[in-house]
């Protein structure tokens, strides 16, 4: 057992079924202590995401400060989310017991900046929704990159197709202007793209273990995953689900170590053409091994050393 104190972690999310898995995983992870959670419009509205987050935290018996963040992307308007993926409520139409917990005062960018100042140089950021709040925090506090330890982002598609357009992944494609700012900022970023999240699925037998565990959070997650499995089956061909956000969480925690993850230049297409939302990763000559691009600050995770699902299940079943 490690004697290191847990690392302070700020989570930015659009809770969402796989966001809920990520949050539960983090609550079960001794390596980190969640010190703040901001929500953003993506899978559902930022306000709904906050409600889902607060109710999940209440079910787990682990209250944390939750702040509602950006209602709309930097350019344009929130499009109503992804009910076909996450259900009308974001939780697979499988409501959690309601709680009377309320968001804190101030918005998510404000909470992120307060956390960064409270743990200067130590705060780790995990972003598993559109990057609007992070971009807004950078605008309000230009010193933010110097105040945080590092940033892990679930987003993008390096060598595989997108999931909301032929080239754009949802978290990047729902606010490309914000993603461009966040990926260009001078802080160490680990990008966890579809390349690796789609190739590490959860199976129906895993879902049944959660559902029948008798543990309140795991049982709720098993229930909401039913809807997510229906959607994911449309492209996997059978009932299973991608593990986007929990995998990014495990990499942020340091509990899962990437196998191939070169540091390369990454540019976000924020033009209005067919490439809008694409993460253009300069992987020329680098995707088979580790040679980093000198000066690059974005590590793109392409594969893992081990299957992720068994580790995820171990932690979720212990919560
Ligand atoms: C990402 O988009 C959202 O639907 C998921 O929660 C995940 O963060 C996957 O593209
Ligand atoms: Ca998400």
Topology:
Elements: E1 7-13, H1 17-27, E2 32-39, H2 46-60, E3 66-68, H3 83-86, H4 108-118, E4 123-127, H5 132-140, H6 144-147, E5 148-154, H7 170-173, H8 176-184, E6 189-192, H9 194-197, E7 202-203, H10 204-211, H11 216-236, E8 240-241, H12 244-253, E9 258-260, E10 263-264, E11 266-268, E12 279-281, E13 298-300, E14 303-304, H13 309-318
Parallel strand pairs: 1-2, 1-4, 2-3, 4-5, 5-6, 6-13
Antiparallel strand pairs: 7-8, 9-14, 10-13, 11-12
Helix pairs in contact: 1-2, 1-11, 1-12, 4-5, 5-8, 10-11
Written description of the protein model:
The chain has 319 residues and is of the alpha/beta class. The protein has a single domain, classed as Ribonucleoside hydrolase-like (Inosine-uridine Nucleoside N-ribohydrolase, Chain A, Alpha-Beta Complex). 38% of the residues lie in helices and 17% in strands. It is built from 13 helices and 14 strands. The strands form four sheets. An eight-stranded mixed beta sheet has the order 3-2-1-4-5-6-13-10, sandwiched between helices. Strands 7-8 form a two-stranded antiparallel ribbon. It has a two-stranded antiparallel ribbon with strand order 9-14. Strand 2, helix 2 and strand 3 form a beta-alpha-beta unit. The protein is globular. It binds beta-D-ribofuranose (BDR) and calcium ion (CA).
């Amino acid at each position: 057992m490690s004697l290191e104190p847990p690392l302070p972690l700020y989570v930015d999310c659009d809770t969402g079924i796989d966001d809920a898995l990520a949050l539960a995983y983090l609550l079960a992870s001794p390596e980190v202590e969640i010190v703040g959670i901001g929500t953003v419009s993506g899978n559902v509205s930022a306000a709904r995401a906050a409600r889902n987050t607060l109710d999940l935290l209440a079910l787990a018996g682990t209250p944390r400060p939750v702040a509602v963040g950006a209602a709309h992307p930097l350019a344009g308007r929130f499009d109503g989310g992804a009910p076909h993926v996450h259900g009308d409520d974001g939780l697979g139409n499988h409501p959690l017991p309601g709680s009377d917990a309320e968001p804190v005062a101030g918005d998510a960018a404000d909470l992120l900046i307060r956390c960064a100042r409270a743990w200067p140089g130590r705060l780790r950021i995990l972003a598993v929704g559109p990057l609007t709040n992070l971009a807004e925090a950078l605008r309000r506090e230009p010193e933010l990159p110097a105040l945080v330890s590092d940033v892990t982002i679930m987003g993008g598609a390096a060598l595989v197709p997108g999931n909301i357009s032929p080239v754009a992944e949802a978290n990047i494609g729902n606010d490309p202007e914000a993603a461009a700012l966040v990926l260009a900022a001078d802080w160490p970023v680990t990008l966890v793209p579809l390349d690796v999240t789609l190739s590490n699925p959860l199976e129906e037998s895993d879902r049944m273990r959660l559902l029948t565990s008798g543990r309140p959070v795991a049982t709720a997650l098993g229930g909401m995953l039913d809807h997510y499995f229906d959607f994911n089956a449309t492209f996997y061909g059978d009932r299973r689900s991608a593990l986007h956000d929990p995998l990014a969480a495990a990499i942020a925690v340091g509990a899962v170590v990437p196998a191939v993850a070169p540091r390369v230049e990454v540019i976000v297409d924020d033009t209005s053409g067919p490439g809008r939302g694409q993460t253009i990763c300069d992987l020329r000559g680098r995707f088979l091994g580790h040679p980093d691009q000198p000066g690059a600050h974005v590590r793109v995770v392409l594969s893992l050393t081990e299957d992720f699902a068994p580790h995820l299940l171990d932690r979720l079943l212990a919560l």
